[in-house]
Amino acid sequence: MPFYRISEIEKKPAGLTEGTMQTVAGELMKVGMVTYPEGFGPPAHVHPNEEQYILVMEGKIQMVLGDEERTIGPGDLVHIPRNTSHGIRVLEGGAVFFTAKSPAGDGNLNQDYNEAKDAGEIRERLSAAGG
User: Fold this and answer.
1) DSSP state of 6
2) Is 55 helix (H, G, I), strand (E, B) or coil?
3) Which of 3, 55, 111, 128 lies at 20 to 30 Å from 42 by C-alpha?
4) How far apart are CA 72 and CA 88, in angstroms?
5) Strands 20-25 and 51-65
């Protein structure tokens, strides 16, 4: 079906951390709405086979992407190239973002998750952010 109402898409556990995701997959890409509570976010990781975009809808998020680190919020769009270490931590309240990944694979947003070689360093940087 080409039309979806986000409120009607089943919420599933985020899997890698606290939170939920709602996903839909097409032939070449998968998309989803992801929600994380304050203080959470997935462990630092890379996607060797997928590129990703995230569009922050709600919340304030500290993000490490490769060598860059910044605070992002509603209206910020981030491109995550393949093989780029990244991680996030929700700073205030909770966060909701829309994500798109390609290729679609099996439709699972966590399908191409691989722990980043610098996961420990990223975890420390994110833990230091915002207290």
Assistant:
1) G
2) strand
3) 3
4) 10
5) unpaired
Q: Which two tokens stand for residue 20?
A: 């939920």
Instruction: Please give the C-alpha separations between residue 127 and each of 23, 83, 88, 98, 119, in angstroms, as whole numbers.
Output: 28, 23, 10, 23, 12
Structure tokens given for 72? 């992002």
Q: In this structure, are residues 56 and 16 in contact, taking their beta carbons and an 8 Å threshold?
A: no
Name the DSSP class of 122. Answer: H
Specify the pLDDT at position 129.
78
pTM: 0.92
Query: Which phi and psi angles does 17 have, rounded to 5°?
Result: -165, -175
C-alpha distance from residue 85 to each of 34, 36, 43, 69, 115 (Å): 19, 19, 10, 11, 9
CA distances to 4, 42, 97 from 18, rounded to whole Å, are: 25, 8, 15
42 preceded by a cis bond (ω within 30 of 0): no
Question: 10-residue block means of pLDDT along the chain (131 residues)?
Answer: 91 93 96 96 95 98 96 98 97 95 95 93 87 50
Measured CA to CA, the distance from residue 110 to residue 11 in angstroms comes to 15
Q: How many residues does the chain have?
A: 131
- Whole-angstrom Cα distance, residue 70 to residue 63? 6
